[in-house]
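Weekly sync, protein design subgroup
Attendees: M.S., D.O., the rotation student, P.L. (late)

Item 1: inverse folding check
M.S. brought a backbone from last month's batch and wanted to see whether the design step gives back something sensible before we order anything. D.O. pointed out we never logged the input encoding, so this time it goes straight into the notes. Structure tokens as presented (327 positions):
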């Protein structure tokens, strides 16, 4: 009955205008004032939203300190499922609202990176705020809420929202968001290199590592193993900081034309490096890697760049992420 998710019309994008954003700000303020985010925090909500056509979406709200954010995912999914699947970033067309600062900020992730909202994005997010506030408003704890809303531009929006089935392991989930620290290397220097190593070479590195961490160890499935090599003169200190951060995986973040590679963790989130001229090559590499198992290797030696073989003097740490899919 409904499409599988939010999908942009690539032939006719329409930027959100001042009227759309002002209306969106009003709905976000009502959502914050209601404190719906507090009572529904971390719960996954499923929504059907009508802006011209019907769309399926899922919403999750998170609060941590001054941070107050809402994710609106296309289709039926949540952050926990994405992280379990080894995805370090939300899927394309996820809409993100950050409400904890002096003013709300909104963006949408696309294959080209995080961008400003188009008009339909703003309308869908406004409907989501209204739907969540409506669901939370009744003291009887309704299983779902429905309604409609006059949107800017003369459009009539409609919504239906309900709680997703409870996940028995939800209390073990730790959402990854926040400000990425820039001090991973302190006063040291670092060279970051992308590699694909044959299994035998990779396994030899892992066995030599002073520290090796993985929730699901990488196995020999006949594939080349993607590796992000951090080569630094403060390798032991970097390995210790990453170990203390309890890293969960890599993601990319774009701001002001700079692409940051982020290693998100339970305790801390670190920026590994920034890219400007190489951003397209990095995005292509990450697109091929992010759905598979991969590793971050910390060493004091720099790969020569001429071969997939690498024999560093020492290996301080190997952190493995993602999930392998056998044939």
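Designed sequence read out in the meeting:
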């Amino acid at each position: 009955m409904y499409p599988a998710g939010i999908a942009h019309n690539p032939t006719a994008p329409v930027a959100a205008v001042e009227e759309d954003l002002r209306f969106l700000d009003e709905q976000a303020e009502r959502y914050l004032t209601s404190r719906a985010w507090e009572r529904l925090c971390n719960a996954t909500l499923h929504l059907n939203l009508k802006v011209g056509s019907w769309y399926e979406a899922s919403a999750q709200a998170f609060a941590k300190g001054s941070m107050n954010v809402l994710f609106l995912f296309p289709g039926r999914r949540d952050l926990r499922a994405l992280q379990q699947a080894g995805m370090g970033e939300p899927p394309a067309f996820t809409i993100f609202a950050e409400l904890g600062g002096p003013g709300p900020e909104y963006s949408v992730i696309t294959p080209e990176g995080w961008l400003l909202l188009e008009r339909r994005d703003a309308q869908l997010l406004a409907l989501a705020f209204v739907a969540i506030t409506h669901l939370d408003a009744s003291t009887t704890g309704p299983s779902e809420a429905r309604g409609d809303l006059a949107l800017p531009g003369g459009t009539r929006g409609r919504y239906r929202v309900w709680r997703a089935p409870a996940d028995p392991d939800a209390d073990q989930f730790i959402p990854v968001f926040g400000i990425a620290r820039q001090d991973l290397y302190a006063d040291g220097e670092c060279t970051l290199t992308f590699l694909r190593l044959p299994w035998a070479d990779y396994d030899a590195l892992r066995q030599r590592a002073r520290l090796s961490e993985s929730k699901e160890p990488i196995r020999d499935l006949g594939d080349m193993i993607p590796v992000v090599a951090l080569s630094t003169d403060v390798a032991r200190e970097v390995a210790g900081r990453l170990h203390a951060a309890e890293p969960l995986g890599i993601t990319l973040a774009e701001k002001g034309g700079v692409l940051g590679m982020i290693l998100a963790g339970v305790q801390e989130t670190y920026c590994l490096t920034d890219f400007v001229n190489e951003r397209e090559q990095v995005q292509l590499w990450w697109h091929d890697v992010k759905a598979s198992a991969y590793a971050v290797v910390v060493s004091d030696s720099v790969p020569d760049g001429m071969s997939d073989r690498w024999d560093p003097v020492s290996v301080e740490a190997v952190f493995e992420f993602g999930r392998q899919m056998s044939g």
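Discussion: Helices lie at 18-34, 36-39, 79-84, 119-137, 199-208, 235-245, 279-289. The longest strand covers residues 53-64.
Action: P.L. to compare against the previous round before Friday.
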